[in-house]
Specification:
mainly alpha; globular
Length: 227
């Protein structure tokens, strides 16, 4: 379950930059497009791989596993192509994750919930202090990977647990907001159904994720509350 959540993390990233969008409708379109793209790529990877290798063979593949599937189909150049794609993907993921985290610090600081230190901009209107702190944290985490066993699995499990809590808060707030709206509000019934289903499902995901990772997540959130 956590692996599936980890794969889909980031599909909501357009919301982070919603304040910079020219049209609010672009945010919804970007989120849906990102989700459909990520699901399609993962489904195709899973299904097409079974047409080239058997399930036991796939289970024995080393990381990056997808490099060895095209290698068997078209030769060594297929593995090289996938590995180049993995490098580009990792660089893009680090860049996007850093920008998302910095933007969140910046926006929250602008609203007054975080210290004004994070709201400082440079001449290009970039949140310089938020980017600095975020990059320092990222580099420290990358250094710990050198000394930690199963660092990647621990990292994505912790990230998935963290985002599940946020998903639950968002779903419950949507339900609360809809219940507080007038009964004649357009789309109220639809929003009630969506909010109820999302709230129940998000709580179920947190339960299925296990208590151990959520306890570590609470420690991380507690440290953040100092700000």
């Amino acid at each position: 379950m956590q692996t599936a959540v980890w794969v889909l993390i980031g599909s909501e990233g357009a919301v982070v930059y919603s304040g910079r969008a020219k049209a609010s409708s672009d945010i919804g379109k970007a989120s849906i497009l990102a989700l459909l793209t990520m699901v399609s790529v993962n489904v195709l990877n899973s299904e097409l791989s079974l047409g080239i290798m058997t399930r036991p063979e796939l289970a024995e593949l080393k990381t990056p596993a997808m490099a060895y599937v095209p290698e068997k189909a078209v030769g060594h150049w297929g593995a090289v192509l996938v590995k180049i794609g993995v490098i580009i993907s990792v660089v893009g993921a680090i860049l996007a994750g850093t920008l998302f985290a910095a933007e969140l610090l910046y926006q929250v600081a602008k609203e007054g919930s975080f210290p004004k230190f994070f709201a400082k901009e440079n001449v290009s209107k970039a949140p310089v202090n938020s980017l600095l702190v975020t990059n320092i944290c990222v580099q420290l985490f990358l250094i710990t990977i050198l000394f930690t066993k199963s660092a990647y699995r621990f990292g994505f499990s912790l990230a998935a647990s963290s985002i599940l809590i946020l998903y639950a808060f968002i779903a419950h707030f949507q339900l609360k907001y809809t219940l507080a709206a007038a009964k004649n509000t357009p789309g109220r019934t639809k929003n009630l159904i969506v909010g109820s289903v999302a709230s129940i499902y998000s709580v179920n995901l947190i339960y299925a994720g296990g208590y151990e990772k959520h306890l570590l997540t609470k420690i991380a959130y507690a440290l953040g509350m100092i700000l």
